[in-house]
Specification:
It is a single chain. The chain has one domain: Lipocalin (Beta Barrel), CATH 2.40.128.280. The strands form two sheets. Strands 10, 11, 12, 13, 14, 15, 16, 17 and 18 form a nine-stranded antiparallel beta sheet that branches. The mean pLDDT is 96. The chain is globular. Strand 5 (72-81) and strand 6 (86-90) form a beta hairpin. With 293 residues, the chain is mostly beta strands. The chain is built from five helices and 18 strands.
Length: 293
């Protein structure tokens, strides 16, 4: 069954205690990162998709020409510390395309309009993230287990799918035996004999429907996401029957969130006095203003 048909038979998830502030839900593109040395990068392709409890992240130097050894993508649990107001991530060693954690600091966040400003506690950088979606389907599926169909063995893998209106993110880690080989590599200096092993880790992003716009896997740009061969197991779980490297595998997903028509945050509140100031000064303040993604 196609996933979009399958979920129509499910009941939307009810309100649950927030794992992270709901203003973080959605699909974010990084507009810029500015560093302590005065340099700013506005060109690296970076996407952050946030479900209720987990994140999918992709970072590429260019759409199709990022060297295999320099691609970045991961999936992990999102952790919010309410006392310190800091966001961090728990990423298993096999749930990262690279063999090391590239971003070791937690995040100090501030929401303004459709922007999330992320400040590193050390002030080494600040990132400007822009919400890409307004309203529509919000679905987060997190891989709970991966089973080898022939042997019945449970495989040490991670993965997930997040759909935010017309934006989609998918992640699936390497097969365990492949990850074992990759873990022994110095990825940045790996030669072409290891390229297939490296890019068997997939993080793919779609920005205009259900075809892949960006991916850690060479040749995936323009291909359709595989949303077929799903079955509903119960009210909180689905299984997808897939082939990975020629092996039949059942991917069992837990529903992290399912809202058929969710309104993502793209404006924030301010004081009455500030709103009056903007109204009085709008001829100057808003003359060139427009929504920038």
């Amino acid at each position: 069954m196609n996933l979009l048909a399958a979920i129509k038979t499910l009941t939307p998830t009810t309100a649950q205690p927030e794992v992270v502030p709901s203003f973080l839900y959605g699909a974010f593109r990084r507009k810029s990162i500015s560093f302590f040395n005065g340099l700013t990068d506005q060109n690296t392709i970076v996407y952050w998709f946030q479900s209720r409890s987990f994140t999918i992240d992709l970072r590429l130097k260019s759409q199709n020409d990022t060297p295999v050894t320099e691609r970045q993508g991961w999936i992990g649990n999102t952790v919010w510390d309410n006392a310190t107001q800091l966001l961090s991530w728990e990423v298993e060693y096999y749930a990262n395309y690279q063999n090391h954690v590239q971003w070791s600091e937690p995040a100090k966040l501030h929401a303004i309009g459709n922007c999330i400003l992320e400040f590193s506690p050390s002030n080494v950088y600040v990132e400007d993230w822009r919400q890409q979606v307004k309203k529509g389907l919000f679905l987060g599926l997190r891989l709970e287990s991966a089973l080898d169909v022939q042997s019945g063995a449970k495989l040490q893998m991670d993965g997930g799918l997040i759909i935010c209106d017309d934006h989609i993110a998918y992640a699936l880690t390497r097969l365990p035996e492949v990850q074992t080989q990759v873990a022994e590599l110095a990825i940045q200096s790996a030669d072409t004999t290891s390229f297939d092993l490296l890019q068997s880790f997939e993080v793919s992003i779609g920005t205009q429907g259900f075809s892949k716009t960006y991916s850690t896997r060479t040749g995936e740009t323009g291909n359709a996401f595989d949303l077929d061969n799903f079955e509903i197991l119960d009210v909180t779980h689905l299984v997808q029957h897939v082939e990975v490297e020629g092996r039949a595998i059942d991917l069992i997903f837990e529903i992290d969130i399912y809202q058929p028509e969710y309104e993502f945050q793209h404006t924030t509140t301010t004081t009455a006095e500030a709103a009056q100031w903007m109204s009085a000064e709008q001829n100057h303040l808003l003359h060139h203003a427009e929504r920038v993604l």
